[in-house]
Design a protein that fits this description.
Elements lengths: L2 H27 L4 H27 L4 E2 L2 H20 L2 H4 L3 H27 L7 H30 L18 H31 L10 E2 L1 H8 L1
Antiparallel strand pairs: 1-2
Helix pairs in contact: 1-2, 1-3, 2-3, 3-5, 5-6, 5-7, 6-7
């Protein structure tokens, strides 16, 4: 991890820690106000998830995984845009197409993560090698599945905290939408996530077939040198 990346991650951890403490204080101070408790609990959950996300790369190092600095920066930037700016900062309400851009991007980023998982499996296998077509199918399915899981998480958070992550009601009046309009945001998210995953998978397939290895710069790999040293 480069010096800049370490500073970046440390800054995010400090910000999220402060938000967690402030949200706890807000819940205690407004103990008898159910609406305020829901708001501060929502901030607490999002800040906690972001804090855990910032600690995850350090945990993965225990498994001798080499994560490129570019991937680390993109990963945390995306999570920050979604949770810190999007949910806590209200960008989903005030910045047009913020949600759509993130869902389109997330499909591609998670597909690349799926390519990394397939690469690691392929690297470790002894009796077989994964075909390029299977690799990209795996990456595509991996990304779309994560998209489905995320929509389930949004639904559960909205249900528990009466929030509006799935945009099933008007942001300003709080009046729930009716019929197909209530499903519009969720279905749009599914389609954008699928489109992003498809584009990334096609790029991955072309890269693998042509053996240009451009994606090697953004793939997570094992620390081969350390494994060889242990073997010797």
């Amino acid at each position: 991890m480069s010096k800049f990346t370490k500073i970046y991650y440390t800054a995010i951890r400090i910000i999220t820690s402060v938000l967690i403490l402030l949200s706890i204080y807000g819940v205690i101070k407004n103990f008898h106000d159910g609406e305020k408790i829901s708001e501060y609990s929502f901030i607490f959950i999002n800040a906690l998830v972001l804090l855990v996300a910032s600690l995850l790369p350090g945990y993965l190092k225990k498994y001798d995984l080499v994560i490129p600095n570019l991937v680390l920066i993109i990963y945390l930037t995306f999570i920050t845009c979604a949770l810190l700016l999007g949910e806590i900062g209200g960008f989903f309400k005030t910045v047009r197409h913020w949600d759509s851009f993130l869902h389109l991007t997330s499909g591609g980023l998670i597909a690349f993560l799926g390519l990394s998982v397939a690469y690691l499996l392929n690297e470790r296998s002894k009796g077989f090698k994964l075909s390029p077509f299977f690799v990209v199918i795996f990456a595509f399915c991996f990304a779309t599945t994560i998209g489905v899981v995320w929509e389930i998480v949004e639904f559960l958070i909205d249900w528990i905290f009466s929030s509006n992550m799935q945009r099933y009601k008007d942001n300003f009046t709080g009046v729930p939408f009716v019929g197909q309009k209530a499903l519009l945001d969720t279905m749009k998210d599914y389609m954008l996530n699928t489109l992003g995953a498809l584009v990334a998978s096609v790029i991955g397939y072309v890269d693998i077939k042509r053996e240009s290895y451009i994606l090697n710069r953004v793939l997570i790999k094992r620390n081969v040198d350390k494994e060889k040293a242990l073997a010797n």
